[in-house]
Automatic annotation (TrEMBL):
The keyword ATP-binding applies. It is an enzyme of class 2 (transferase). InterPro entries: Carboh/pur_kinase_PfkB_CS, PfkB_Carbo_kinase, PfkB_dom, Ribo/fructo_kinase, Ribokinase-like. CDD domains: bac_FRK. Gene3D superfamilies: 3.40.1190.20. GO terms for molecular function: 5-dehydro-2-deoxygluconokinase activity; ATP binding; fructokinase activity. The lineage of its organism: Bacteria, Pseudomonadati, Pseudomonadota, Gammaproteobacteria, Pasteurellales. The gene is scrK_3. Residues 5-298 form the Carbohydrate kinase PfkB domain. This is Fructokinase.
Length: 300
């Protein structure tokens, strides 16, 4: 029986261009994508967060329920609207315009949190750290699950334009980095957060600071670089023709967490590298159609 994976943060409706006149309404938001990715791979997945008590919030809640994600701690907020994002696509790469600010997800409180247990996992992203009260709720959840004997995964998934300043973003995100057991960065995120001008320097800096954490940098079609307890390697990726990269990082994390939660011995090199290989495959498959959630792979 895999250990429960709690995913905390925003559930977002992505509006993705479909021709000149129309947008596709797609369920999204990095934490929601990860929660679905975990569930599709056979993991025990549960979502923590707020959406608006509105048609889009109900759509998100129903979508997660249909995907076998536990939504007992997904609250419909009557005071605030569900996060909605217009996704721009150019040659398969994306840009984001956030249409609701602040959205319901930013109003998660400490009293909304579940009781955590030993062996469970918690995954968070930085959007949950932008404003209060969700910042305190998120950092409190990370500390609480560690205190209970669980593990924390953190993917910054930076959206710099939503923060008051880059300095504030770095300061708060690095608090979450310190609380995590597993960290997943893009190359750009890691160089920004470490104030380095190359991936090599940034990776050396973060791994020297946190040698006991599993640190992963995703490299797109080239796979993923990881470090754990002195061992460093690149796990090769699989190159597919990308149509939409919107959910690739989230699919990678879903594959990673599903694997970690199912293997108590995940810190062993052979086990870990097999899990990262699975995560790479999940990330690659997610780029092959439009929409972050629609292309998340199922258990083979």
């Amino acid at each position: 029986m895999p250990n429960r994976i709690w995913v905390l943060g925003d559930a977002v409706v992505d509006l993705i261009p479909d021709g000149e006149q129309h947008y596709l309404r797609c369920a999204g938001g990095a934490p929601a994508n990860v929660a679905v990715g975990v569930a599709r791979l056979g993991g025990d997945s549960a979502f923590i967060g707020r959406v608006g008590q509105d048609p889009l919030g109900e759509f998100m809640q129903q979508t997660l329920q249909q995907e076998n994600v536990n939504t007992d701690f997904m609250f419909l907020d009557p005071q605030h609207r569900t996060s909605t994002v217009v996704v721009g696509l150019t040659h398969g790469e994306r840009s984001f315009t956030f249409m609701v600010n602040p959205s319901a997800d930013q109003f998660l409180t400490v009293s909304d949190l579940p009781k955590f247990h030993a062996g469970e996992w918690l995954h968070c992203c930085s959007i949950a750290l932008i404003n209060e009260p969700t910042r305190t709720a998120t950092l409190s959840a990370m500390q609480a699950i560690r205190d209970a004997g669980g593990n924390v995964s953190f993917d910054p998934n930076l959206r710099e334009n939503l923060w008051q300043s880059q300095d504030e973003m770095k300061s708060v995100v690095l608090q979450a980095v310190a609380l995590a057991d597993v960290l997943k960065f893009s190359e750009e995120e890691l160089t920004l957060l470490t104030n380095c001008d190359s991936l090599e320097k940034a990776f050396d800096k973060i791994t020297a600071l946190y040698p006991q954490k599993l640190i992963i940098v995703t490299l797109g079609k080239d796979g993923a670089l990881y470090h754990l307890q002195g061992k460093k390697a690149v796990i090769a990726g699989k190159a597919l023709q990308p149509i939409d990269t919107t959910g690739a990082g989230d699919a990678f994390v879903g594959g990673l967490l599903a694997g970690l939660s199912q293997h108590a011995d995940w810190q062993q090199t052979t086990v870990l590298e097999q899990i990262i290989c699975q995560a790479n495959a999940c990330g690659a498959l997610a780029t092959t159609a439009k929409g972050a959630m629609s292309t998340l792979p199922n258990q083979a």
